[in-house]
Amino acid sequence: MKRILSILLALLLVFSLTACSLGKKTTTPDPQPVEESPQNTPAEEPVADNAKVFACEELRITLTDEFQEESGIDYYTGVFDTDEEVVFILREEKSYFGSISLDEYAEKVIEANENVGHIIEKLHKKDGIPLFEYEFDNESTGSTFDYYTTMFESNDAFWLVQFACYATEYKDHVETFHKYARSVTFDE
User: Fold this and answer.
1) Is 146 exposed, middle or buried (0-12, 13-18, 19+ CB in 10 A)?
2) Separation CA 43–CA 53 (nearest Å)
3) Residues 52, 32: Cα–Cα separation, whole Å
4) pTM for this one?
5) Residue 128 region by backbone torsions, left for phi larger than 0, else alpha for psi between -120 and 50, else beta
6) What is the set of domains in the chain, with CATH numbers?
7) Residue whose C-alpha is closest to residue 50's, from 37, 63, 68
8) Contact yes or no for 57/77 (Cβ under 8 A)
9) What are the backbone dihedrals phi and psi of residue 98, each rounded to the nearest 5 degrees, phi first?
10) Residue 178: which H helix or E strand, with range?
């Protein structure tokens, strides 16, 4: 796990550029209610028998009890990991973007990632969740990671929720990543 975390911390440097180009991370002490939509309605099927809900400000995500919350990782609102998977969560105030939709936010995320050299597949939706996938080669470690990147919207923020694992294991994890994404809800 320490090896994965150190590799992913190196990736954090790359994604810090994304965070900087999209806006500052801030917190909101009192989250506002959000309307029901496909992206804040719990998944119909359970994530796993050992499911556990994790909180990241007003966002709730159901992962497994194998996940641990990591602290002290700059630029992200929350990071959760296991020996094989990691989840990065970034909250960005809507006010930094003016009046844009979730789809427009997703396009800005793609543009920012392409500006730092990521080759991104086309933005698409699965079960109403905007997402894109990409591969990242960490030259310093010689490891390659695949990312399943999803975007959500709460009352006053956009949320980037990224799921990652070694590229060689991605096919084994991608459906689980989507189950995790479908579990995302926001406090009312």
Assistant:
1) buried
2) 13
3) 24
4) 0.76
5) left
6) 2-186 (3.40.1000.10)
7) 63
8) yes
9) 75, -150
10) helix 170-182
